[in-house]
Amino acid sequence: MLVDIVMEGSCMYFEGRALNLLLVEIECGDLPLRGFWPYKLALSSSSTNHHHKATSLLILPLLLRTPISFSFNLIDPFLQQSIVEMSSARVSSFTQALLLASLLLFMTVMSCEAHLTPKYYVKSCPQALSTIRAAVRSAVARERRMAASLIRLHFHDCFVQGCDASLLLKDAEGIVSEQNAAQNFRSARGYEVIDSIKSAVEKVCPGVVSCADILAVAARDSSEYVGGPTWKVKLGRRDSTTAANKDLVQRDLPIAFNNLDELITSFARQGLSIKDMVALSGSHTIGQAQCATFRERIYTEPNIDPGFAAMRKRRCPSSPVLGNSTLAPLDLVTPNSFDNNYYKNLLQKKGLLHSDQVLLSSGPIGDMVKYYSKNQAAFFADFAAAMVKMGDIAPLTGSAGEVRRTCSVIN
Ligand code: HEM
After folding, report:
1. Does Transmembrane count among this protein's keywords (predicted)?
2. Ligand 1 proximity of 352 Cβ (cutoff 6 Å)
């Protein structure tokens, strides 16, 4: 069993008291748990002691009565060290009791959050999924690239303020649209397809299916339609009544010029691991990018196949005032099919974006690229799992937010 644990040694307010909480994410089979672990209750007098954090995590296998392997996000190297040091340490029964108490509290905090489930609309709108699927299929049949654009919309929604369809809101009083932030402006596309899917769904079940869920399902259906993996989409997200401000959008969405550390940090901020990052980047097996996003790479980087650079230069002039929006396929071999050619391209130094090619680094990240280049089935499985995880980023559930009637405006 693999457990991804994401540490955020932050101080948050919970029930009116400042507690030091760990954001813990556990995957047990297909049952992901996400919640806050109040490690102050577990043993600690000193809240910043990594040793104590490690103790509370080590007790997990004991309480779940099953061996668990931990995989850590690189953001907390001290904690990793502590885990290693402590894996041979003995834990007293008093400590166990304390930790059990803290786990129970952890579970309680988690159970306060309503959870997403694939069955969410089974009773309230049994036609929801088939309606979305039919609309996605006709949009992608009309324009194959739309599959890529819809997958990207879900990504750009989830990374900013969670999967709450905040990306879809247009400028209005009190709302500065996320669509105008640098990473989205004249780049993110497919909004009108989401609008038309929403009106089809509203016809069969008015006011029931959220725009955030439509984005998640449309991404899955797009992947499947162009030959990629499919997965069960968890549902029950609600839509935000606010958009994130521009600074937050620009901070939270990675850009093509990011280096590897910046990419890792960007995914870690969302609770996503390096493995998730490498797998999700594989969606650049479809879709297009504009010259402005890869010009620097093709003209200045040494780490690029010369023939490939020459080919891309033909339609992407070096002058920064010319041809900025000319398109090139992210995967030069099969730009319209979802496969593992993206990783094969990286091995040949034919990644289009700087942020693509940096994945082929020495060490474990480069090893993952090589692995996916040889094993499409593993890539598909990891991509599907990572999409589910991405779809779980900070959803609004229960009575939070609303179900918008029109995706581009609040009710
Ligand atoms: C690792 C960090 C990432 C960076 C820096 C990045 C950056 C970009 C850039 C610059 C483009 C071209 C946009 C344009 O020229 O208009 C693009 C396109 C695209 N991205 Fe990413 N991306 C990243 C991760 C992801 C992830 C996680 C997904 C989905 C899960 C994704 C899906 C796509 C798709 C499908 C396209 C093509 C869209 C289309 O053709 O309309 N990207 N990305």
Report:
1. no
2. no
